[in-house]
Amino acid sequence: MYPTLYELQSGAEKLGMHTYGLFILLAFCAAFLLTHFRALRIGLHPDKLIPIYIAAAVGGLLGGRLLYAIAVDWENLITNPLSLFQPAGFAVYGGVIGGTLAVAALAIGMGIRPWKLADIAGPAVLLGMGVGRMGCFFAGCCHGAIAPIGADRWGLLPESFHGGQIWVSKVFPWVTTEFASGNGGVSRITDVPLYPTQLWAAGMLLALAGFLSWLWERKRFDGQIAALALMLEPLYRIFVESFRADERGYAFAIEVSEATASWFPTGMTQAGETLGSHMLGLTTSQAIGLGSMAFGIAIYLVRRNAGVEAEIPVSTEPADDFDEAMLDG
């Protein structure tokens, strides 16, 4: 749609500032800022979180690249491990998993009570994911499958814009996106209306982050917000993936007839590199989401009677005992 903000000429090559990278940076900033302000409320001085932020960024970037590389071309990753560090392709779920593991390990090592931190991190991660999905929209990745559109349709973007169009019509999904070929984006389906999966994802994630932020003030036990984040986020992802032509393909799939495939959303029958193959199954993200949901349910059941431990707000002024309430021992 609008993959490059501007370009600089450097000799024979052009160096561009890409919209996707900008939104990934904004996503990390949004998540870190929300965590920063919430930390004060639970007795943890934000300065103590700086190593946590670094671990989240490094673990998230490596995890996102690793899952993408495994899903798209695991054989190349084995033969060329350094390809993991190439700036090409990123899986959001991999970033969340990698960042979570890195943060959990460091938090335990620092003596921070993990459930307190998990509850403020849950909405922050969802906020960051929502902001990051706007980067997908501008880059043209993570788009939906080909969508129906009525004869009466009108575009929201001016005709002078050559990156694509946002169509409004009277046919579900009512709003569709179209990415123009040759605009520098990464869309694999161009010049036709598509399900607006990136916009759906951004809206749902931001709404979910807002709901859990509201609920955080009213939680009944430490770990409740983290558990609900793990339980509710996959619901949105399973829905969105059902209308997305995910080129990474399926985790589990069976071949079905064209008639059978017509009964299901196109994202469930047209994933993978070959469109229209009529393979019905769960995509990689849907399968990971189901695992995340099961993990969240387990946390909820185990922690439901744990209660809320004392939270002592701290000042931003330096003090020797500013985070004693968050540190064990």
Structure description:
By secondary structure, the chain is mostly helical. It has one domain. α1 packs antiparallel against α4. The longest helix is centred in the N-terminal third of the chain and has 30 residues. The radius of gyration is 21 Å and the shape is globular. About 2% of the residues have low confidence.
In short:
This protein is mainly α and 329 residues long. The protein has one domain. It contains 8 helices and 7 strands.
- Helical percent range? 40-55%
Tally of discrete structural domains: 1
Number of strands: 7
Low-confidence stretches: 319-323
Distance N to C terminus:
53 Å
Number of helices: 8
Strand order within the widest sheet? 3-4-5
The shape is globular
What descriptors fit this protein?
mainly alpha; 3-stranded antiparallel β-sheet; 8 helices; 49% helix; 12% strand
Structural topology:
Layout: E1 4-10, E2 13-18, H1 19-41, H2 50-79, H3 92-110, H4 114-139, E3 153-155, E4 164-169, E5 175-179, H5 197-216, H6 224-241, E6 250-255, H7 258-261, E7 279-283, H8 284-303
Antiparallel strand pairs: 1-2, 3-4, 4-5, 6-7
